[in-house]
Amino acid sequence: MSYLDQLNKQSKEGRGSDSEPATEKPAVVETADEADTPTTVDLKREYEKAGVRDVLEELDRELIGLAPVKKRIRETAALLLVERARRRLGLAHETPTLHMSFTGNPGTGKTTVALKMANLLHRLGYIRKGHLVSVTRDDLVGQYIGHTAPKTKEILKKAMGGVLFIDEAYYLYRPENERDYGQEAIEILLQVMENQRDDLVVILAGYADRMDRFFESNPGFRSRIAHHIDFPDYSDNELLHIAIGMLERQNYHLTEEAKATLASYIEHRRQQPHFANARSIRNALDRARLRQANRLFEGDTGPLDAEKLSEIAAEDIAASRVFRQKPGLNAEYVHPERDEETER
Amino acid sequence: MRVTQGTFSFLPDLTDEQITKQVQYCLDNGWAVNLEYTDDPHPRNTYWDMWGHPMFDIEDAAGVMMELQSCRKAFGDRYIRMSAFDSSHGWESVKLSFLVNRPKDEPGFRLRRQEGHGRNMRYTTEPYADAKPEGERYGV
């Protein structure tokens, strides 16, 4: 088929040449000649067909805890589904504002949820590609005059058709330095967030209190963000489940005593500074694996089977410095020679 | 005189919607799209200026269209072409290239004749536009 034929075909269809059937696409093109406007919409069927159920179930299955977050995502999904149906019936024409802010302490799963959100928005047809571009201040703000705008635009170009995830977004705004280039990046972001709502969804993430201050000093952001989702800290029990899940994915398992030790480790670790929820647990497990490897190596008990190689014993966790430290003492400042590992 | 070149030279100028689809086709094939501009319309002019960098790692055509808009804003009175580079082994060359912008007024080409030895004639074409220095050829 020649290009001319293809073009002819496209213009007859009046819609994209995408491989998806026309009905699956959101009615982004508000062409007047939409004779095929349906009169009824089956929300349940839409829900199944768009694959929203898969995403939500995956979310439930893979993420432990985070009940309020899951609830908010469910609500958002319902809103978007209804909005899509309304659009199909010609009741709504504008793209709803989809920019979001995720607030919560470190290690509470903001990035993971952002990935799922990108997938969800893609399935619902609100973004065309569904990829996630994760950036921080360094990726957006330049080092000298005239460096910021091209840098920010470069990132925006990459994020088009997907989700731009800005971690620790409050660093963009530095009020103490009035010549800071962050302001320039903010202005470009705001402009794109407003004018290209069809092309891009921006998710800002960071600690709750600092994000609040950031929004106070940048009212433009606050008004352009429709969904604020707060991520609570994990409970001790949830963290234990997360730990077990993480180990399972790496084909490790804990002995019964090790489970008890880990539970008390989590309790102790929470009292100490720089506690970063699931991330602290992941680091602790990495160190436990290190100790397990050393134990196996130095124990030198002859041939080892798969069972032995994948078992984390209580002693691997109990050796942690967290147990020896008084709560509140800063784990970071222990002299490295006295203890070679740093707890984070 | 309407200057044509590239893949869709036999078609009327593409609309932005059509350009977007072509760009998306290129991106889906993994080609890097880039923009070039010039105000020397001679068909043998291969030295076009590049607008920004070649756009690798872009998923969606909206990113490229954003650059095209800003290029048009700066050089709306010149020719702008879009080309798609395939970097895969064995190809490493431009796969698709077409004009996406042209000056409002295109004066066309003059045919020059030069009498050589005997009755020998040499012919050459030169764009009327290039009588003026670069940057002033298609005055705003």
Helix content of chain A: 40-55%
SS-derived structural category of chain B: alpha+beta
How many strands appear in the DSSP assignment of chain B? 6
What's the Cα radius of gyration of chain A? 25 Å
CATH topology of chain B: Ribulose 1,5 Bisphosphate Carboxylase/Oxygenase
Can you list the strand order of the major beta sheet of chain A?
A: 2-3-4-1-5
Compute the number of helices of chain B.
2
Mean pLDDT of chain A: 81
| Number of DSSP-assigned strands of chain A | 7
Residues in β-strands, percent of chain A: 5-15%
Q: Give the CA-based shape of chain B.
A: globular
Distance between the termini of chain B: 18 Å
The pair of chains with the biggest contact is: A-B, 22 and 18 residues
Give the SSE string of chain A. HHHHEHEHHEHEHHEHEHHHEH
Q: Which strand order does the major sheet of chain B show?
A: 2-1-3-4
Which blocks of ≥5 consecutive residues of chain B have pLDDT under 50? none
State the helical fraction of chain B. 10-25%
Strand content of chain B: 25-35%
- Would you list the SSEs of chain B in sequence order as H and E? HEEHEEEE
